[in-house]
Amino acid sequence: MKAGTPDRPATIIVPQRPPLLGMRARSVLQTVVVYGLLIAGSAVFLLPFMWMVSTSLKQSQDVFTYPPSFFPNSFEWRNYISGWTILPFNTFLMNSLIVTFANVIGNLISCSLVAFGFARLRARGRDILFLALLATLMIPREVTIVPRFLLFSQLGLVNTLWPLILPAWFGYAFFIFLLRQFFMSIPHDLDDAARIDGASTLQILVQVIMPLSGPALATVAIFAFIGNWSNLLDPLIYLRSTELYTLALGLNLFRGQNFTQFNLLMAVSIITLIPVLVVFFLSQKLFVRGVTLTGMGGR
Question: Per-residue pLDDT averaged across 154-180, rounded?
Fold first, then answer.
C-alpha cells in the first residue's frame, strides 16, 4: 500500500495469484504421468505371470509355435489335473504346509521373545549385543551351509524335516530387528501400568505388547511364509526321500522328468503360487502398515 498525497488517494496493490485453471491442469498432468508410470510398471511385472497362465492352458504342441501366440487355441483346463497327478504333489503339499507353518510359528515366538528383550528390558551391554545381532545379517548364507549340514548330520537329522524347521525356533536377525523397532514405538507407560497390576514380564509381552503389534507380527508372518514356501536350497540339501519333498523340490523334480511338457509345468507352478497370493492379498493392509510403522521407534 503506497502512501497517498493530498491530491491523490492511497493506492492499494493486490498481489496477483496464479490462475486456478493452470494449477488444475498441472495437477491433472502430474496425476496422469504418475498413473501412467504405475500402469507401465504393473504391465512389466504382470506380463510374465499372464504368459505363464496362457502357457498352462495350451496344448503341448502349441507352446513353441512360431510366431508365438499369447492366447491358446483351446483352453485345456485338464492340464492342471494332469500336471498335479503326474507326481505325488499332494504329499509335497502336506510337507510344505508342515514346514511353512512350523517356521512361521517358530519365527513369531522366538523373534518376539528376543525383540522384547532388546526393546523393553534394561541390561548392561544390551546395545552391543544388538549390534552384534545386526552384524550377522552381513554374513552370506552360503558360508553357513556346510557347518549347518555337518551339525544336522552329526545329530542324525538328515533326510528329515527337522533341519528345515529347527533353525526358525532360534530366531532370525532381520525379523528380530523389525519387531524390536515396532516394540520400541509402544509407550512404556503400558508396561508400568501392567506391572502395578501385578503382571510379570512374560505377561506384559503376551497380554500387552503382542496384541498391539498385529501389523509387525503380520509382516514377519508373511515374510516367513513366502520365504519357506518357495525355499528350494535347504530341501535340496537335506532331503533324500521323495515322500519328504516339498513343493519347491517337487517342481524341480517335475522339471527334470518332464522337461518338454512346459504347459503342465506352468499349470503346477500356478497352483503352488495360489497360497502365496491368497496370504498376501488377505493381509495386505496389515503388511503395508507393519512395514510403514516399523522403524518409528526411537532409542
Answer: 92
Burial per residue of 257-275, b for 16 or more beta-carbon CB atoms within 10 angstroms, e otherwise: eeeebbbbbbbbbbbbeeb
Is 90 exceeded by the pLDDT of residue 83?
no
Q: What phi, psi does 2 have (nearest 5°)?
A: -90, 145
The SS3 call for residue 76 is: coil
Q: Model-level pTM greater than 0.85?
A: no
Which residue from 175, 182, 181 is spatially nearest to 224, judged by alpha carbons?
175
| CB within 8 Å of 264: residues ≥ 6 apart | 56, 79, 82, 83, 86, 254, 258
Contacts 24+ apart (CB under 8 A), 261-264: 261/60, 261/83, 262/55, 262/60, 262/63, 263/55, 263/56, 263/57, 263/58, 263/59, 263/60, 263/62, 263/63, 263/76, 263/79, 263/83, 264/56, 264/79, 264/82, 264/83, 264/86
Alpha-carbon span 263 to 12, nearest angstrom: 78
pLDDT, mean of residues 247-259: 85
Residues 6+ apart with CB under 8 A from 140: none
